Amino acid sequence: MITMLSLEQLKEITRQSESKIVLLVIDGLGGLPRPETGKTELETAHIPNLAHLAGKGTCGLTDPVSPGITPGSAPGHLALFGYDPVKFEVGRGILEALGIDFDLKKGDVAVRGNFCTVDNRGLITDRRAGRISTEENAKLCKKLGKITLDGAELYVVPVKEHRFLLLFRGEGLSGDASDSDPQQVGVAPLSVTASSPKGKSTAKLANEFTTKARWVLAESHPANMVLLRGFSQHPNLPTMDEIFKLNPAAIAAYPMYRGLAKLVGMKVLDTGSTIEEEFDTLAKNYAEHDFFFVHVKKTDSTGEDGDFDAKVKALEELDRLLPGITDLNPDVLIVTGDHSTPAMLKGHSWHPVPILLYSKWCRPDRLREFGETACASGGLGRLPALEVMPLAMANALKLTKFGA
Amino acid sequence: MITMLSLEQLKEITRQSESKIVLLVIDGLGGLPRPETGKTELETAHIPNLAHLAGKGTCGLTDPVSPGITPGSAPGHLALFGYDPVKFEVGRGILEALGIDFDLKKGDVAVRGNFCTVDNRGLITDRRAGRISTEENAKLCKKLGKITLDGAELYVVPVKEHRFLLLFRGEGLSGDASDSDPQQVGVAPLSVTASSPKGKSTAKLANEFTTKARWVLAESHPANMVLLRGFSQHPNLPTMDEIFKLNPAAIAAYPMYRGLAKLVGMKVLDTGSTIEEEFDTLAKNYAEHDFFFVHVKKTDSTGEDGDFDAKVKALEELDRLLPGITDLNPDVLIVTGDHSTPAMLKGHSWHPVPILLYSKWCRPDRLREFGETACASGGLGRLPALEVMPLAMANALKLTKFGA
Description:
Two copies of one chain form a homodimer.
Chain A: H1 7-13, E1 21-26, H2 41-44, H3 48-56, E2 58-63, H4 73-80, H5 92-99, E3 109-118, E4 124-126, H6 134-144, E5 153-158, E6 163-169, H7 200-216, E7 225-233, H8 240-244, E8 248-251, H9 255-263, E9 267-268, H10 275-285, E10 291-296, H11 298-304, H12 308-321, H13 323-326, E11 332-336, E12 353-359, H14 372-375, E13 381-384, H15 388-395
Parallel strand pairs in A: 1-10, 1-11, 2-13, 8-9, 8-10
Antiparallel strand pairs in A: 2-12, 3-4, 3-6, 3-7, 5-6, 11-12
Helix pairs in contact in A: 4-9, 5-9, 11-12
C-alpha cells in the first residue's frame, strides 16, 4: 500500500556526493533447507566474513517482485537497480540480445528466433529442429543474414543450439507484433500480426522475413523453418545518472548481466570471470565511480544444477574473498541476490532473498549471522527489492528530505 | 506495494462510536545507537511505563513514507493522520503559514519570502541579507504590507531573521507559479512565471509585488530586495470527520503541528507548552472528542541539536508523565513518531520509527520493552505510517467489514 516515490519524485531528492556504494549481487542467493540438516545452502556454508559483517550491519529479506512471484533475471536485477520490474518489462527478444552482448540501439526491435522442422504440408513437427548444433546454427544464420528487406536492416545472430537473435533496425519499428510460434506441433507457424497500429510495419517485415527464410532453408534438415517470438524494443529506461546522480559501473562476467547494467546506463568494466578477478576489477576501478554493481554467477548456476554442496562451496569461496570488497571501506555495502535458486528446486524460486546492509549510518540489529532464518528477524524486515536503492542512497547520505 | 483502500473506500466502512483514540506523536522518536553502548536514545532511557504498555500491547516499526526516504514534518504527520504523503504534498509557502499560526483560507496562495541583498546592478550578493534581526524584519514587513495590488489582498508577515510569509488572498489564484529565487548569488532575481494557465494571474501579482518591493526597500541595507519561493495553496484535504467520522482534537505546543492538524480538520485546543501541560489539556478535554493527536516536540529538538543525553531525558520525562494518558483508559493508545531524529545525525532521518499500539483488541506480541531493536520483531511488523489510522480505527471497533 505504500505509494513509493516515482522515479521523477526520487530524482528531486537525490544528490551527488563523494560517498561510494557497492551492491554485491550473489545470483540465486536464497535457498531451501536440505531435509537431513534443516539448513539452507547459506546456513550450511562457513562464512565468517559475512557473519562479521552481519554483526556490524542490518539484515532482512527482499521480495524481488512480490511474494510468490519467481522472477527472471531481468526483473530481479531491475528491481535492485531501483526500477519497478512490473512497470518496466524487458522483452524476450531484448533479453536474448543482451545475453550475447549485442550492441542494441534505441528503436531496434529484437526477436527470439528458433529453428524448427516443418513437414511437406508446412506443419511443425519439431519446435526445436532436434536441437541442432550451435555450429550448424551459425551456418544457417549466415545464410539468413543475407536476406534483404525493404525498410529495415536485418541482423541474424546465432545463440545456442536452435536459438538465434533476429533484429530489425530502422525507422518507425515497434515491438507490438505477435509471435509466429504457435507453441505446439501439428500446426503451421502463425502469421505475425500487429497488436497495435504502431506494429504494422514490423509485422509486415517479420512475415516477409519468414517467407524468405522458408525458401533459404528449404534444403536444410531438420532446421527447415523458423519460429519467432518476443518482439520487443529497448525499454528506454531513465539512466541511474539521471535518477540517482550516480556514476555507476558494472562488474559482471556474464553478458546478460552486463546487458541489464547497460540498460540503466552503467559503464561496463572489463573483467576476468572468477570472483577473485571480479573483485580485483573493483579495486582497480574503485576511484573512478561512486556506485558498483558486482555480480557473482556461480551460486545461481550450482543452484540450477541442483548441486547443494557446490553452491555451499561457491558461497564459502565468496566469503573468503570478501575482504577484497570490505578492505576498500565502501560507505555502503549491500550483499543480496536477485532471487533465490534453491538447489532443492533446481531453478529460480519465489522465496525471499537475504539482504545485508552495512553503513556507518545503518541501525544495526542483533543478528550475528547471515542466513535465511536469521534474516527473517533482521532490522530491515521484509521489503520489496525495489526499495534497496533508496535505502542504499539514504545510507550513503545521498538523499535530501522529502517534503517540507 | 499492496493496494490500500482509497480514502473514498475507507470512508464507506468507517463508523462513529463512543470509543476513544489517542495518538501520541513523539517527534523524531527513532534514533541510532551511541557507539560506546550500542543503544539508541530510546533503548538508553529508563521508561518503565512504556515498557509496561509494550507488554500489554503490540509493537512494530513504521516507515513514514517508504524505506530510505527522510520525511519533512508535513509528510511525516499527514501519513500518521491517514493521508498518503506522496499524493498530498504541502507546499513550502503553506507550511510557512502554518508555522506562524496564520489563519489560512481555502484559495489563499502562500509564498515563502526571504529578504536578500542586491548590488546596484540588481545582482544578488546575499540570499539572506546577512540574516537581519527579526525586529528589523518586522519593520520591513510593515512597509511591504502597505503595498496594494489590483485583484488580491496582500499579507506580509514576519517569520524569523530574513524569512517572511507573503500571502495573496483573492479569486482565481493558484500555486502554479515559479520561484523568483534563483538559489545562487551573482545573478538577478528571476521573473515569476506561470507553470500552468491557472497560475497566470498569480505570477503577474507576484511580479508586481516584487517591483514595488524593490522601490519600498531601496534605502534599506542590507535587506534591499526580496526573493520568493514555494508558491502553494491549501491542499484541500478531506477532513478526518468526513473520512473517519471522528471529532478530532489536536494538542500541540508548536504552530506548525497545530497547522498540520488544522489541514485535516482537527480542532486545535489551547494548551500550555510543557508535556505535563499538554497531558492536562488532554484530560480536561477528554470528554469532548473521540480522537486526540498529542504532539511532543522536545525529542526532536534535542535530536536536532545532536544532544543524545537530552533526548534520553526528554523520553524519560515523557514516560514519567505517561499515566496522565493511560489513566484515562483510552480504547486505543498509539505511541509513535513522525520520523526518526537520531542525535548522531543531528537531523531527520530515514530510519523506521518505533510504534506501540495498545487496545483491548490488539493481538499482543511477546515484547516487554519499547525500543528500535525490539520493535523490529514486534507483532505489528514493519508497516507504512499510512496504515496507522486504519489500525487505530479497527482497534477502536470503528471499522465495519470491507466487501460482502
